[in-house]
């Protein structure tokens, strides 16, 4: 069966068509500037030149129609007709407490996704738009929702509750949810395969490090804690997000600077993190170049980020009472040997010993710890699309 994986943003759409008989990606693509002047679709197929289509796309339905037309195009496509697509897997950011697993989409699920939009106002609405567009264009094809929050629904109450009045949790569902769950699940299970171990016998700390970043504690194959919280703003310092701060800073800023609530939210989400500290960029590559050139604030931003990651690793080792594997994934985790070395250094007391020579890799699945390291350190490129496709296949079968 061939599964189409869709990931909709507010003005963008990423997609991948995967042949589940061998789990090979037949095509992957990106549609940008949906509803904005300059819309374009870019599709990549192994062994071919990149295909770019620049046409107006007024909405997501328009964009998905162009995706389907491109996939079935006689010259640039990879399938003869839409009938070859057995199912569509949709990435959905928030599934609340109700969905601890992926689910086939029906009217009840769609109603729930609308309700959960209050918990993820920036993410769930475009996810819903993408689903509805696919339902219109592919009415006879089964659709599956795969939630970023689902993997973390195994967290115990002691891990997900905040120190607020309990009624706020029961009545308004204010609790830690965690995100990047599909990625944390994929790399933890893949780590077990690489090590030839049963994931149910392992204590793994997974570090999803990119412009958005989170750390998770995976004990016996289940998430028992993670750094992101009620929203993706909690936890690590990120590209533009502030991560953990004293909540009293928010009313202080509103009072001292006469900021509105929306202005403070914008600062914390879009103007903070390594961008705010460095004054250079939200892209870690730019910051590394500036740091190498002697920019002190760029160096400081990196030091703060590495320190926060290291702190969460120690936090989660304590939560699981041990660790068998430390895993790095996502853009920075997969491609920045210097970042991995800075984070893993001084953790020898936990049995973590990085091999500097092995660590000089980018984007490659490999073990980078010394042969005698008690804790294995791995680089595992994430594959959220494949994880979504696997869940989709399992449900529709």
UniProtKB/TrEMBL annotation:
Pathway(s) served: Metabolic intermediate biosynthesis; acetyl-CoA biosynthesis; acetyl-CoA from acetate: step 1/2
Cofactor(s) required, per the database record: Mg(2+); Mn(2+)
Annotated residues for binding of Mg(2+): 7, 384
UniProt xrefs under PROSITE patterns: ACETATE_KINASE_1, ACETATE_KINASE_2
Binding, substrate: 91
Keyword Magnesium on entry: yes
Active site: 148 (proton donor/acceptor)
Pfam families noted in UniProt: Acetate_kinase (PF00871)
Database matches in InterPro entries: Ac/propionate_kinase, Aliphatic_acid_kin_short-chain, Aliphatic_acid_kinase_CS, ATPase_NBD
GO-annotated biological processes: acetate metabolic process; acetyl-CoA biosynthetic process
Highest taxon of source: Bacteria
Family: Belongs to the acetokinase family.
HAMAP family: Acetate_kinase
Protein's recorded name: Acetate kinase
UniProt organism field: Youngiibacter fragilis 232.1
């Amino acid at each position: 069966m061939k599964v189409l994986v869709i990931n909709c943003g507010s003005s963008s759409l990423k997609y991948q068509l995967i042949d589940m008989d061998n789990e090979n990606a037949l095509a992957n693509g990106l549609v940008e500037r949906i509803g904005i002047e300059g819309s374009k679709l870019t599709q990549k197929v192994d062994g071919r030149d990149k295909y770019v289509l620049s046409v107006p796309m007024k909405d997501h339905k328009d964009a998905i129609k162009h995706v389907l037309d491109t996939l079935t195009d006689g010259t640039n496509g990879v399938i003869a007709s839409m009938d070859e697509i057995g199912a569509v897997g949709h990435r959905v950011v928030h599934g609340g407490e109700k969905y601890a697993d992926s689910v086939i989409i029906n009217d009840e699920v769609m109603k729930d996704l609308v309700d959960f939009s209050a918990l993820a106002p920036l993410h769930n609405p475009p996810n819903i738009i993408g689903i509805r567009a696919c339902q219109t264009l592919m009415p006879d094809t089964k659709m599956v929702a795969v939630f970023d929050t689902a993997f973390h629904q195994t967290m115990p109450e002691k891990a997900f509750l905040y120190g607020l009045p309990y009624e706020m949790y029961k009545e308004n569902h204010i609790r830690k949810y965690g995100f990047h769950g599909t990625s944390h699940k994929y790399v933890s299970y893949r780590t077990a395969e690489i090590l030839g171990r049963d994931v149910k016998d392992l204590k793994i700390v997974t570090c999803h490090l990119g412009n958005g970043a989170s750390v998770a504690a995976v004990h016996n194959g289940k998430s028992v804690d993670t750094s992101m919280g009620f929203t993706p703003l909690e936890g690590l310092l990120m590209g533009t997000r502030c991560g953990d701060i004293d909540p009293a800073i928010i009313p202080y800023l509103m009072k001292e600077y006469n900021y509105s609530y929306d202005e403070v939210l914008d600062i914390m989400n879009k103007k903070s993190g390594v961008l705010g500290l460095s004054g250079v960029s939200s892209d870690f590559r730019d910051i590394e170049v500036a740091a190498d050139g002697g920019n002190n604030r760029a160096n400081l931003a990196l030091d703060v980020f590495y320190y926060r990651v290291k702190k969460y690793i120690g936090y989660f080792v304590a939560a699981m009472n041990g660790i068998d594997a430390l895993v790095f994934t996502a853009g920075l985790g997969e491609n920045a040997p210097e970042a991995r070395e800075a984070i893993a250094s001084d953790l020898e007391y936990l049995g973590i010993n990085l091999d500097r020579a092995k660590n000089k890799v980018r984007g490659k699945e490999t073990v980078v710890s010394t042969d005698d390291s008690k804790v294995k350190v791995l680089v595992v490129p994430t594959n959220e699309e494949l994880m979504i496709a696997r869940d989709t296949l399992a449900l529709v079968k």
